[in-house]
TrEMBL record:
It holds the Pfam family Epimerase. It comes from the Bacteria. This is Putative dTDP-glucose 4-6-dehydratase. Belongs to the NAD(P)-dependent epimerase/dehydratase family. Residues 34-279 form the NAD-dependent epimerase/dehydratase domain.
Length: 357
């Protein structure tokens, strides 16, 4: 559950990100959208932004929100899901047989990016991704009004990004690491992209593929196994910000209001270019990220590391987003530092009540 101050903060984010963008989204007016994985992080933010369009700008968008346990999510987040224009579909996407004929846009978000699950149950993860994508594509193929199928893939389809490499663009792939447990998620997502492209070729389904990287901001549960989440959790507990990995590892974070806007713009993609990275190109090392978090909590907690720089394997996970920025004339506005500071502000509004602390 989140409190009224946190809800107001998100509403302000929505209004700010939509400034100057309403005209680019008018094709969504009076349309029906089907969203799989609607109760996940991306799904919540998309619906937050659509709710804002409906309630403040009269877009009259209908949403078919599909996910396992979506009914429970509606109890936990009534301000998101308890709307007269949202139809809740409590269903595993692997069991989907049809989508309402009124739907014009389908967004396939279902999938769990938590690498703890990828390593503990890789067979289930691969089945969920491939079978789920097949089911929803089959349902889309029967939709007469379908204007676009938007598939959320992953930045992990590129393989392990070399530390010295440039930010990865949509045409650069590195050697497969298919024997490693943590690579199975990326390999399954790559296979799902092949399915999407096959349906696009054989059945002429209009498709857009988005490859998300890293995000931070409201609605992200901070028990997730990523460095930035751990840093913020330490801060909320009043502890020293602990860097458990290699301090020189490079990361970037996209703020979710921009992620949601970019996704809706991609849904309306008029271009033949149908594959785009989704994330931030504004990168920095974990040491700097930890220091930003520490400063956001007042600058008195300190930053600690378990090992000196260079003692552990360092990694890089940074997209080149120039293709999206050019295609949609939509530059990234919120850099990594601002995204982190905004995220911390929001979490502090909830105290220790959010994110399974």
């Amino acid at each position: 559950m989140i409190n009224s101050k946190q809800i107001d903060y998100i509403q302000n984010d929505c209004e700010q990100v939509l400034a100057g963008q309403l005209g680019t989204l008018t094709a969504l007016k009076n349309k029906s959208l089907f969203i799989s994985g609607a109760n996940g992080y991306v799904g919540k933010w998309l619906i937050e932004l659509i709710n804002h369009l409906n309630e403040h700008h009269k877009f009259n968008i209908n949403i078919k929100a599909c996910a396992t346990s979506i009914s429970q999510s509606a109890k936990d987040y009534p301000h998101i899901f308890r709307k007269k224009y949202i139809d809740l579909i409590d269903k595993d996407i692997k069991n989907l047989s049809e989508i309402d004929a009124s739907v014009s846009y389908v967004l396939h978000l279902a999938g769990n990016p938590d690498n703890r699950i990828h390593s503990s149950n890789p067979v289930k993860i691969m089945k969920d991704i491939i079978l789920g994508t097949t089911r929803i594509l089959d349902a889309c193929n029967r939709l007469e009004k379908l204007l676009n199928f938007t598939h959320f893939s992953s930045g992990h389809v590129y393989g392990q990004q070399p530390f010295e490499a440039m930010n990865v663009n949509e045409n650069t792939f590195y050697s497969s690491t298919g024997t490693r447990l943590l690579s199975y998620y990326g390999e399954a997502k790559r296979a799902s992209e092949s399915l999407v492209n096959a349906y696009r070729s054989q059945y002429k389904i209009p498709t857009t593929i988005l490859r998300p990287f890293a995000f931070i901001g409201p609605h992200q549960l901070i028990d997730r196994p990523w460095a930035i989440n751990n840093f913020i959790r330490d801060g909320l507990y009043g502890q020293s910000i602990r860097i458990l990995g290699e301090p020189t590892t490079i990361r970037s974070y996209m703020y979710p209001s921009e992620m949601a806007l970019w996704t809706l713009r991609a849904v309306l993609n008029p271009s033949e270019k149908n594959v785009f990275n989704l994330g931030s190109s504004d990168s920095m090392d974990l040491q700097s990220i930890a220091q930003i978090v520490e400063q956001s909590f007042g600058g008195h907690l300190g930053v600690s590391t378990n090992s000196p720089p260079g003692a552990l394997n360092k990694s890089k996970f940074i997209p080149d987003i120039s293709k999206f920025e050019t295609a949609f004339d939509l530059p990234l506005k919120i850099g990594t530092e601002e995204a982190i500071r905004k995220a911390v502000t929001w979490y502090k509004l909830g105290g220790l009540s959010y994110g399974k602390l």
